[in-house]
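From the shared-data thread, chain only:
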Amino acid sequence: MIKAGIIGATGYAGAELVRLLTGHREAEIKWYGSRSYIDKKYASVYQNMFQIIEDKCLDDNMEELSGQVDVIFTATPQGLCASLVNDEILSRTKIVDLSADFRIKDVEVYEKWYGITHPTPRYIKEAVYGLCEINREAVKAARLIANPGCYPTCTTLSIYPLLKERLIDPNTIIVDAKSGTSGAGRGAKVDNLFCEVNENIKAYGVASHRHTPEIEEQLGYAAGEPVLINFTPHLAPINRGILITAYASLKKEVSYEEVKAVYDKYYAAERFVRVLEKDVCPQTKWVEGSNYVDVNFKIDPRTSRIIMMGAMDNLVKGAAGQAVQNMNLMFGIKESEGLELIPMFP
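Structure, as tokens:
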């Protein structure tokens, strides 16, 4: 059995890790780290775990934890994992970091967009960006994984095949994105109160959202050149879900069959990316609670542009599910173990 510890186990992403790992046949949770709930029973924080988990929450001591487990998940705010990790810890255990600390390879870009000084930039180059469908082989050999952000995961997987095949102009990409409120975390914020969110949808982080450089970096690898995008996220009055609609100019006239063949080339063998049938648009309700990403496209011959669409659960494929998928690859077990969850409906 893989012994796992979670730092930040009582946040939304941490709680989703607990849910997934509790049902994992080849892993067990040895340690529930939560600075906010030290010595409190985990099931008293999340009542859905009553009579399922009897353990108490412990402090987020990575040094202590690293000697007890094979892998540590850090579902924590930016800067924490980077401030705790060191050579000794990495010699004892693998780390899957759900924050942005090691996602962006240019430390100056990270510090500019996140507004903090990176405490351990020496690990940035080593860290593998854990988008399994694209970096699978590198993930298998890694000891430090930068688990991708939710918006970057959905955006990259929706656009990646067309950039790789040079079918779209990388300088024309516009991404309109929407997220459920769980993406903002469990902390109390006025903007996330029921009366603020219910019966409302709004843009936020316009031209300044910190996932922008992460998306641009990943799309740049696909395009083979730097990519600049317009990225506008919106907060939707739902608990879970990411929906992205991206637009780009086509480099040449293409048919539906040609574009569909490109998506199938990259995703036909992928367990968790579903390319939908013609004219079926992705919807968040059909991926909720699962590790699936549903993608599709629509050619607009009138404007010589293409619309690329994607939907996924921000807490599963956008966070905890992807983290478990990375763990499975790192330890050489079935990639879908613990993740074969049918989407919930209603």
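The mean pLDDT is 97.
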